[in-house]
Design brief:
462 residues; alpha+beta; Jelly Rolls; Heat Shock Protein 90; 5-stranded mixed β-sheet
Length: 462
Amino acid sequence: MAATDLIERLVEHKAVGAAPREELAWLAERGVLRRLAVGEILSRKGQPVEWMYLILSGRMALFVDRGTGPNKLVEWHAGDVGGLLPYSRISVAPGYSMALEPTEVLALHRDEMRVMAHECFELTSLLVHRLVDRARLFTSTELQNEKMISLGKLSAGLAHELNNPASAIERSVSVLTDRLEESEDATLALGMARLSEAQLTAIESLRERCLAKKASSRSAIEQVDREDTIADWLAARGLDTRDAPMIADTEVTLEQLNAVAAMVQGPTLNTVLRWAASGCAVRGLASEIRGASMRISSLIVAVKGFTHMDQAMVAESLDLTVGLRNAVTVLHAKTRDKSVKVTLDVEEGLPRVMGYAAELNQIWGNLLDNALDAAPDGGCVGVQAARDGERVVVRIIDNGAGIPAEIQSSIFDPFFTTKPMGQGTGLGLDIALRLVRHNDGAIDFESRPGRTVFRVSLPSAT
């Protein structure tokens, strides 16, 4: 292609066409014209980014694989600029760039960038504006992708957490139906027994003991032994041993059973024991249902507070204790799966901070999730918050293997990750850094084998 024809095409180019003609001539002279077939790869993940590409015709896209297959991160058309840009910090490609249709690009090598900045001021300025626009686009896209990934993790953990109390409610309701029927039958039989005042007093004492709160939980072996002992007691008196598990689940002692047996004998004693035990079982099951329902409610409150899904994105005065506690709650499933002990230590009277609640919660979620990944099975993660002068400092500490010294300078870089394929996007810490800065804060870390501390410092609101 003749140089004049290339210059004319550059004049029509959306990104650089406004530059002086002599600067476009410089670009045409230094650039390399390349023609790409459909499916041709221009750059690959992990390779150095050495070229700027002015798209003259056709269409290209950058694909990033986060372990679930390639996802299109951005698409370029005629008039766009891809690859390296002046003053860009990008050093390696985050994915692969591929032509989606026959495409022409004018490529300029990295070595020419310094010369261009010196000799082509207007052209460089236009490209820097493109850099800002691209950074804004990438930031928005990456943040949305990371939010969706975080939402997926949160949903999986929440489903796991909700399943336990929901199953407990279903199980308790199923048993409750039978126990209510037994209690009703026993109540009717007891009413027909025409017991004396002394007998009723003894029965009421037994009932109160049945309803007493358990002093401590018994092991499975202790519970079986107790059932066997009570079954033997019932059998020795010719009573129904099927009631042994219900009676054994209460705090009734053999001495109290003997006291009632001394006042009531025969079939009536069977009725009395079944009435007391079934009534206790009904109340116990109702208590279990209430506890499971409260667990579901607390999880919903924690997730709602963690995501701030019902609040506008405005800066407000925040109590960090709430956000940190919610982050620990919503990640409880992962904590339990790894048997990691998580501690939350917040200084009494901690000042409030001014910030964006959803953003700060995303920071805590990312950092805590990383700490749980780093901690060994059975390890420890600590979350601490304390005043430091006019600022509030949150520290998230794990006792994992630590971050190797040779990669510590790269961990905040976008797409950098040490996790296996499919387990990390390389965006969590990059986005955490941006969100911390958006909240007028600072983030740093220190790491050695056995102890890694991420430190987020935020200005106090008071």
